[in-house]
Amino acid sequence: MGESGAILIYDDCCNLCRRVERFLQRIDRHGRIEALPLRSERAEGLIARCGLQADTDSVILMDGSDCYIRSDAILKAFALVGGRWRLFQLLRVVPRFIRDYLYSAIAFNRYRLFGRSCKCG
Question: Is there a contact between 5 and 53 (Cβ–Cβ < 8 Å)?
Answer without folding.
Answer: no
